[in-house]
Structure formats: structure tokens, C-alpha cells
């Protein structure tokens, strides 16, 4: 029976196993099999409601589909002799309820709209989960920032000590970026949540189907407007992958810093053992492997996006089998992003940050020279460019003590700062990293009072984002719950 159905999906019998394997999407279809059963259920409910399928056939098929929904698609449906799960599952259905009934389910649709619907549904769940995982990471960052508002650390430009900042300020910079990532994922989710079902091969169908009904049963906002677009586009996958790739670019920067910070010559952080590995030869080693793998996953996700984009470019309308080749890249990219974000949140949550070496480094390399120049401007009347030259000259002489700064001011501008009231105490306080940080209290700066305000603001934004995602998750779950209930009701229908 199974052989017979496999054979019927082919032009002739002369296909080798090698070619069957080459053409089959079965390996990737494991990911959409559950969704495919839901798509079948919604389609069948609609066919019956529209009077396209007689009720006793609908009941028989629905009984089998509810079994697949409960227990999973049966193993024989995954035989690679079938082109895909859609064909394998139809064969399994016919084997259970007979062709007289089971052979009627594919009225008014094609695998082209079927697969596009399944992929959108699976991706919808993945994007919701990735947003939740990213929001959890943001929560970890905000909690850590709250603990480290007074933790002075060096800030860098060009990886050179630049100006002192705080760990909270640094963490909030990443939180802001991850907040935008959630925004991009949210946009992608809203645009993908339209239902291709009913587009059939591409030209829609002559059956009087109700596309609004299937779209709503499957938790979509609406059916897709154009049936050719519905089966041919994978722009929703490109958009999701690009949002993942952008997020991973940020995450990999953070990984790079964590790797640097955990090194013996920086010592800003110690990772917990659970997120570290040792060496098979060097017993003393503790390596930041989770951060390294996450950093590398950014390459995997960018590669998935590039592959998907390259596969779709230049394809004529409408469905082309090339599209099948894109789907595994989608799952690989989204999975890599999800795993990396979740693991990285755990890494951060369990890491120990070390304020002392951070504070020591904050004062290294004349990092408060900018603040001193600002003080010379604000309190001693120098133009900024002159103050910059005075302090720069003192730095080149190797000291920012009163004598050197005074001598530099005389040499650069013929001005005595001591005559204008500069004292050793005022100089020392201008050079204190904590004073420098505290003076940078304008919006977005590192001053502890400002980061306290920023944390409150970002916590509110995070709360809104969490609520939005929870609403989406609930809406999908409610739709699927209603679908299953209606399907069960059809089966008890007299
Ligand atoms: N397996 C195909 C895919 O993943 C879906 C089926 C469309 N196949 C076809 N021959 N029209 O894209």
C-alpha cells in the first residue's frame, strides 16, 4: 500500500534511492510535521463547513488527524521515499481511512500553499520564543546594571582606555541594542502572520473555500492578499533571519568582550564553571567556551541569511523547488540564535564581575584627561581647543600633576592656571574617575543617578515588550485551542 502511494507521486518507477533522497525535504520536514496536521485540520473543518466535503468523510479523516495531533505523525510518513511530509502524511491518512475518504483532503489546496503555511506557523513560534529569550537576557542585563551603577570601569574607543564609565552604563548599552532586536523580531512577526492557505498551487482554486476561516483557525491575522505571492515569497524568512543575524552581531560583540574580560591580564569577570571548559592537556585552564561558541554562531546565522537570500534571488514567479532548499537554513539560523541568546543569558546571570580591577584600570592611561580639559574650560575660562592642547602637552610630558599642567599652560597659551586659582586638590578631584563619571549625568550618560533613571525607563519598556509577546503567544495558543475543540466537535457530530 505504502509503496503504491509512493509510486503514484512519481512520473515513473525508474528513480534511484539516491535521487529520492536528493529531492526529499523529509529531514527538515520533521520541524513542520505538527504544524502540517493543524493545517490539515483547519482545511478539513473549512471544507466540511462550506459543504465541499460530506460530513461522514470529514469525520473519518478528522478522527485520524486528531490521532496524529495527539500521538504525532506516524513514523512511516517520514519515509524518504516520499518527497515530503505532506505526501507521507497523506499516504498514512489514506492507509487509515481508505482512499474514498482520505483521498479527498487535498481538494482546494496544493503542497505549495500548505508548506508555506506550515513554515510560517513554525517560525511564528520560534520568533515568539526568541523574543522571550531576548527579553530574559534584557532582564538579566537590567538587574546587573542595577547592582553596578557605582562600579567604575574603563571605557574604550579603538580598544584604548578612553574615559571612565560604569559597568551599568556598559550593560545598558547592550540592553538598548537587544531592545531594538526585539523590535525587529516583532516587525517580522507581524508581517509573517498572514496565511497563504487557499492560494493552492499559485492561482487559487475553483472550490468555494473560505480563506478567512482557515486563516483565523490557524491564528493568522488574515489571508495573504495575492495567491501568487502567497506561495512564492520567502521574504518573511529573510526578514526573520536578518533580524536574527543583526541580533547575533550584537551578541557576538558582547561575547568578544566577555572573552577579553575573563582573560588573566584583564580579570574583570570570572565565568561560572558550568559555562566554562577546561583543556585536555593544560590542567590549569578555564576557557570561556560558551562565549566562543556563541560568537561563532553569529557566523552561522549570517551564513543562513546569506544562503536564504542567495537562494531566493532571481527566482521567477511563482513556486520553484529551490524554495525547499531554503527551509533548513531558516531553521538552522533561528535555532542558533535562540540557543545562543538563552545560553548567554545564563552565562551572564552566573558570572562574577570584579569591581576592583575595573576601578584600577579606570584610572590608567590618563583616562580622565577629558574631564580635566572640561574643568579648565568651565572653571578657568580656557577655550576647549586650548585646554585640549594644555592637557595633551602635560600627558606627553608624562604627568598630570600641578607643576606639569601649569608649565604646559604657560608654554601652550602663556597662561598661569595657578594664578587663576587651580590647586593640587582641584586637579586631583578633576582626575578622579568617580568624579568624572558623576559629572556625566545628562540623558544616556554613566552618572549613577542617570543610570538609575535609565534602568527604570528600560524596565518599563521591557515590561511592555514582554506583555506584547505574551499577548501574541496567548492569541496563537487560543486559536489552536479553538481549532482542536471544533475538530473534536465535528467528530461527535451526528
Ligand atoms: N517539499 C516542498 C518544500 O519544502 C513542498 C512541496 C512543494 N513541492 C512541489 N513539488 N510543488 O518546498
UniProtKB/TrEMBL annotation:
Family in the record: Belongs to the lyase 1 family. Argininosuccinate lyase subfamily.
Record-annotated Argininosuccinate lyase C-terminal domain positions: 366-438
Name of the encoding gene: argH
Official protein name in the record: Argininosuccinate lyase
EC number, UniProt record: 4.3.2.1
Compartment(s) of residence: Cytoplasm
Reaction(s) this enzyme catalyzes, per UniProt: 2-(N(omega)-L-arginino)succinate = fumarate + L-arginine
NCBIfam families for the chain: argH (TIGR00838)
Keywords linked to the UniProt accession: Amino-acid biosynthesis, Arginine biosynthesis, Cytoplasm, Lyase
Primary subcellular site in the record, as a coarse category: cytoplasm
Cited HAMAP family: Arg_succ_lyase (MF_00006)
Domain of life: Archaea
Residue ranges of every copy of the Fumarate lyase N-terminal domain listed in the record: 83-303
Range of residues in the leader sequence: none
Pathway: Amino-acid biosynthesis; L-arginine biosynthesis; L-arginine from L-ornithine and carbamoyl phosphate: step 3/3
GO CC list: cytosol
Pfam family, one: ASL_C2
A single BP term in Gene Ontology: L-arginine biosynthetic process via ornithine
GO MF annotations in UniProt: argininosuccinate lyase activity
Gene3D superfamilies cross-referenced by the UniProt entry: Fumarase/aspartase (C-terminal domain), Fumarase/aspartase (Central domain), Fumarase/aspartase (N-terminal domain)
Amino acid at each position: 500500500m505504502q509503496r503504491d502511494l509512493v509510486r503514484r507521486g512519481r512520473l515513473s518507477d525508474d528513480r534511484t534511492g539516491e535521487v529520492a533522497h536528493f529531492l526529499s525535504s523529509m529531514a527538515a520536514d520533521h520541524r513542520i510535521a505538527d504544524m502540517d496536521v493543524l493545517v490539515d485540520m483547519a482545511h478539513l473543518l473549512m471544507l466540511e463547513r462550506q459543504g465541499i466535503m460530506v460530513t461522514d468523510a470529514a469525520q473519518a479523516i478528522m478522527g485520524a488527524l486528531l490521532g496524529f495531533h495527539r500521538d504525532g505523525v506516524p513514523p512511516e510518513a517520514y519515509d524518504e521515499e516520499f518527497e515530503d511530509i505532506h505526501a507521507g502524511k497523506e499516504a498514512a491518512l489514506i492507509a487509515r481511512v481508505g482512499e474514498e475518504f482520505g483521498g479527498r483532503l487535498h481538494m482546494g489546496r496544493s503542497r505549495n500553499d500548505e508548506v508555506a503555511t506550515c513554515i510560517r506557523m513554525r517560525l511564528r513560534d520560534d520568533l515568539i520564543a526568541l523574543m522571550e529569550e531576548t527579553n530574559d537576557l534584557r532582564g538579566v542585563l537590567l538587574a546587573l546594571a542595577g547592582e553596578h551603577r557605582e562600579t567604575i570601569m574603563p571605557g574604550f574607543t579603538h580598544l584604548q582606555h578612553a574615559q571612565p564609565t560604569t559597568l551599568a552604563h556598559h550593560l545598558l548599552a547592550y540592553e538598548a541594542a537587544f531592545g531594538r532586536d526585539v523590535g525587529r523580531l516583532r516587525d517580522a512577526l507581524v508581517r509573517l502572520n498572514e496565511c497563504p492557505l487557499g492560494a493552492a498551487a499559485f492561482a487559487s482554486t475553483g472550490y468555494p473555500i473560505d480563506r478567512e476561516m482557515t486563516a483565523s483557525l490557524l491564528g493568522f491575522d488574515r489571508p495573504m492578499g495575492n495567491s501568487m505571492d502567497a506561495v512564492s515569497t520567502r521574504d518573511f524568512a529573510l526578514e526573520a533571519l536578518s533580524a536574527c543575524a543583526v541580533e547575533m552581531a550584537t551578541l557576538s560583540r558582547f561575547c568578544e568582550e566577555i572573552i577579553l574580560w575573563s582573560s588573566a591580564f584583564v580579570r574583570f569577570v570570572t565565568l561560572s564553571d558550568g559555562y566554562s571548559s577546561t583543556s585536555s592537556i593544560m590542567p590549569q585552564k578555564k576557557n570561556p567556551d560558551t562565549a566562543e561558541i556563541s560568537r561563532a554562531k553569529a557566523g552561522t546565522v549570517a551564513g543562513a541569511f546569506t544562503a536564504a537570500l542567495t537562494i531566493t534571488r532571481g527566482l521567477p514567479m511563482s513556486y520553484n523547488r529551490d524554495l525547499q532548499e531554503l527551509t533548513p537554513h531558516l531553521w538552522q539560523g533561528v535555532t542558533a540564535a535562540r540557543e545562543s541568546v538563552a545560553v548567554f543569558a545564563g552565562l551572564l546571570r552566573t558570572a562574577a564581575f570584579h569591581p576592583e580591577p575595573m576601578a584600577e584600570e579606570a584610572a590608567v592611561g590618563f583616562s580622565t584627561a577629558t574631564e580635566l580639559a572640561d574643568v579648565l574650560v568651565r572653571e578657568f575660562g580656557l577655550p576647549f581647543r586650548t585646554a585640549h592642547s594644555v592637557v595633551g602637552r602635560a600627558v606627553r610630558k608624562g604627568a598630570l600633576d600641578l607643576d606639569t599642567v601649569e608649565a604646559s599652560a604657560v608654554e601652550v597659551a602663556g597662561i598661569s592656571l595657578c594664578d587663576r586659582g587651580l590647586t593640587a586638590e582641584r586637579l586631583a578631584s578633576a582626575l578622579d574617575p568617580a568624579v568624572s563619571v558623576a559629572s556625566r549625568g545628562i540623558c544616556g550618560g554613566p552618572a549613577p543617578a542617570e543610570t538609575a533613571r535609565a534602568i527604570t525607563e528600560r524596565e518599563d519598556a521591557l515590561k511592555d515588550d514582554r506583555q506584547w509577546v505574551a499577548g501574541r503567544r496567548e492569541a496563537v495558543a487560543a486559536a489552536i485551542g479553538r481549532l482542536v475543540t471544533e475538530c473534536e466537535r465535528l467528530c461527535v457530530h451526528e
